[in-house]
Amino acid sequence: MSIDAAEVGQIAHLARLDIGPEDAESHAHNLSGILAFVEQLSAVDTEGVQPLAHPLEMTQRLRPDEVNETNQREAFQSLAPATRDGHYLVPRVIE
Amino acid sequence: MEWEAVIGLELHAQLATNTKIFSGASTAYGAEANTQACAVDLGMPGVLPVLNEKAVRYAVRLGLALDAQVAGRSVFARKNYFYPDLPKGYQISQYEIPVVGPGHLDIDLDDGSRKRIGVTRAHLEEDAGKSLHDGFGTMSGIDLNRAGTPLLEIVSEPDLRSAREAVAYMKKMHSLVRYLGICDGNMQEGSFRCDANVSVRPVGQSEFGTRSELKNLNSFRFVERAINFEIERQIELIEEGGAVIQETRLFDPDRGETRSMRGKEAANDYRYFPDPDLLPLEITPALIDQVREELPELPDARRSRFVTDYGLPDYDAGVVTASREMADYFEAVVSGCGDAKLAANWVMGELAGALNRAGLDIADSPVSAETLAGLLRRISDETISGKIAKEVFEAIWAGEGDADAIIEARGLKQVTDSSAIEAMVDEVIAANPEQLEQYRAGKTKLMGFFVGQVMKASAGKANPQQVNQILKQRLDG
């Protein structure tokens, strides 16, 4: 399996990465190499093996439904570039 | 050409837990912005989501109520997309293995028949925050209190064939989640939301047409209007030689139309993968049994019981079991007055009408079930007639006290003394010789006139059965 420069552009767009056309070819080459390496796994016979969702052979622990978090808005918002009236501010996103 | 609509709904029910699905932050509605968004909800580095047990139990409840398969093992996945109210850049959801597998829900159609609607799946996921576009100048404001609130997304099969059916299904599911106590169903606050997938095809064709996905349907009325508009739009488009494109469309309630949300399609590549922060969710048969024990009586079972135990017509039973609150209220009235049919008539009639006019839910009724039962007892024991009871009901509604107090204060006790009624009847007959003559000449429908006159003379207090009986004797004699 390999990918081309156009697919690199598509993935970059979805990941909001600014990759110019001049770099797309080399990324396509490198990513294709990684995929080829991983593809060796296809040689293994997985007939009857359950798909693995997690490497740990454990199941999810559950938490009781009790409030144990307090308001730390001040601390969190001191890290934000812009806030107003308790809201985080971002460039306007309405369509 | 004859067209047929094919509709499937995706319903989002916010689960009525105290805390978020993956954190211990409160989910209480209406708090000041961002005061209930903790480090996990904000996606801070190094945090680890831990699943809320209550959310899991609630999902199992729905699964059992839909007669669905509850997955012994299900997996959480990351759904990747960028939006400012999604702090992590992904939503934790379930993809390949949802917690609830195929099930079904029966709905009542307008013609009185029943239809079984398939439920494909229901999965657990977290809600996003809210973006506010007004009041922040050239910026948008983000409130992340809602981020991480547990949602159950319930996906139907494309089994619905009209907007009416879609609304019937949505109402039934709305009623069910409230019966189960897993969602408060408050649509104004966004606790119960709907997206609709709509396509059309010529009648008789088995393949589906291209569908559009409708969003922003936050009331039953909007769902019906949006789907009807969309069906018409697609039929017109195809008949004019065009083709429906698969896209997301937003319903605009002010204009009553759906609008394309351009640019949304390209982003529909969510690159799901299993979330490495969360282990597979195991639901043991023991837990399922435990949840089954906790299940309340479900709406359909309750409806059948009302028909069997109380002798209600199926239609009435359906109306009074439409919500758990209404059914509880009705049963309290029955146990207080002992007459189920009378109770059903009053709960569905006077009470429902008054609540409707006042825009109140039955849970907020100013007339309690005990008070209404007190009024109905006075009808049953013939202290007052049904007509006077309506007057008493209005007084109770207005806060003037209970039925006995009002009957006493207003002197509304029914006249059952035969001699008193006979006197009134004689007076009325004497005062209307013309009508008497016509009556005796064969115009017997004047009976109604005489009854009305006597009731008027008694200020509505004469026992109607006795009035009828005595009048008939006198007129015919």
Automatic annotation (TrEMBL), chain A:
<comment type="similarity">
    <text>Belongs to the GatC family.</text>
</comment>
<keyword id="KW-0547">Nucleotide-binding</keyword>
<protein>
    <recommendedName>
        <fullName>Aspartyl/glutamyl-tRNA(Asn/Gln) amidotransferase subunit C</fullName>
        <ecNumber>6.3.5.-</ecNumber>
    </recommendedName>
</protein>
<keyword id="KW-0436">Ligase</keyword>
<comment type="function">
    <text>Allows the formation of correctly charged Asn-tRNA(Asn) or Gln-tRNA(Gln) through the transamidation of misacylated Asp-tRNA(Asn) or Glu-tRNA(Gln) in organisms which lack either or both of asparaginyl-tRNA or glutaminyl-tRNA synthetases. The reaction takes place in the presence of glutamine and ATP through an activated phospho-Asp-tRNA(Asn) or phospho-Glu-tRNA(Gln).</text>
</comment>
<dbReference type="Pfam" id="PF02686">
    <property type="entry name" value="GatC"/>
</dbReference>
<dbReference type="InterPro" id="IPR036113">
    <property type="entry name" value="Asp/Glu-ADT_sf_sub_c"/>
</dbReference>
<dbReference type="InterPro" id="IPR003837">
    <property type="entry name" value="GatC"/>
</dbReference>
<keyword id="KW-0067">ATP-binding</keyword>
<comment type="subunit">
    <text>Heterotrimer of A, B and C subunits.</text>
</comment>
<keyword id="KW-0648">Protein biosynthesis</keyword>
